[in-house]
């Protein structure tokens, strides 16, 4: 049993000190996941990997007593928290109050930086919610791969499924999402 699992077991048993002990054990891994995920974001993104980890941590332990029955369950919850933070950030950037769909550009006229369309991220989120209602395992796998940046073997381990099952589930989820996101799809 890993140290993380032991601390999670203690937290579930009601040990108030367990959450404080958990952060040092998972921080580096959460930071690596956030760095990988943020590498896929546009150049003008204001949220940094460290801030993403801290915000996710606050959501995981700040809202009251949380129970995670395994290391995999904890990292799935962290992936979901990071996904929600990025979605909320995209929605804020798209709102009229913050300039709507305006695009940032550097002051140097020779090097314009255009933001990645936030509408695409919102479409993916809507499709992912729909997939989650049909097949929660497939949706969890997509969240770990797309929003956290895990490799397929890492995501399989986090979900406690075999790499072969993860491969089949990934193929299904990609196909389902592609069909859902195509123009004229059912989203």
Q: Total number of β-strand segments?
A: 0
> What share of the residues does DSSP label as strand, in percent?
under 5%
Specify the number of helices: 8
Rg value: 18 Å
Write the layout of secondary structure elements.
Blueprint: H1 3-12, H2 18-38, H3 49-61, H4 71-94, H5 118-134, H6 136-147, H7 152-159, H8 163-181
Helix pairs in contact: 1-2, 2-3, 3-4, 4-5, 4-6, 5-6, 5-8, 6-7, 6-8, 7-8
Descriptive report:
The chain is mostly helical. It has one domain (3-181). The chain has 8 helices and no strands. The protein is globular and about 50 Å long. It starts with a helix and ends in a 6-residue tail after the last helix.
Short synopsis of the structure:
This protein has 187 residues and is mostly helical.
């Amino acid at each position: 049993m890993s140290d993380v699992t032991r601390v999670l077991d203690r937290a579930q048993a009601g040990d108030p000190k367990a959450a404080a002990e958990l952060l040092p054990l998972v921080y580096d891994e959460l930071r690596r996941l956030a760095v990988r995920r943020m590498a896929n974001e546009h150049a003008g993104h204001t949220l940094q990997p460290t801030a993403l980890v801290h915000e996710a941590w606050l959501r995981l332990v700040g809202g009251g007593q949380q129970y995670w029955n395994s290391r995999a369950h904890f990292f799935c919850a962290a992936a979901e928290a990071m996904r929600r933070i990025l979605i909320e950030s995209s929605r804020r950037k798209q709102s009229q109050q913050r300039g709507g769909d305006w695009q940032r550009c550097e002051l140097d006229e020779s090097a314009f930086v255009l933001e990645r369309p936030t509408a695409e991220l919102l479409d993916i989120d809507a499709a992912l919610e729909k997939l989650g209602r049909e097949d929660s395992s497939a949706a969890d796998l997509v969240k770990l791969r797309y929003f956290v940046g895990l490799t397929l073997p890492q995501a399989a381990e986090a979900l406690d499924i075999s790499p072969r099952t993860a491969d089949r589930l990934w193929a299904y989820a990609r196909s389902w999402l592609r069909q859902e996101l195509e123009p004229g799809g059912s989203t």
